[in-house]
Amino acid sequence: MNAAEVVEWLRGKAASSPHVAVRRAAVAHFAKHKRPEDGECLIAFAKDADTDVAVSAVDALVHWRTLATIQALRSLTSHRNPAVAAAALAALWKIEGPTVENLFDVIEAASKSRAWEVRVVALDLLATEKPEERRHFI
Prior knowledge:
About 65% of the residues lie in helices and about 0% in strands. It starts with a helix and ends in an 11-residue tail after the last helix. By secondary structure, the protein is mainly alpha-helical.
């Protein structure tokens, strides 16, 4: 297999692989190379059952500032896994900044979320004036 065949295999079949290491490697590859066509693959990986794969994919989605990415991150802020929801909230804030809609979502997450991870990230986003000063702990 040459490099192009490997990339096509990662795009097509890695998401359905039963091996977590394969899915993690695919996300790492897409995050490292940042090709525009890989954004959709990362959105699919962000819905993965493995927390590490999903959070890594959400963190990598920050580099794709498309409408599809923003919509996917918005839907992931209510994910059943608190780590994924917290990462999506932070990524959405990094992409769009403190817009009115984001402020509303962050305030709602800080006040109504049952998961402590989401509350901590939301409060941290509201407390810092610059997103780069935000703590990195999830």
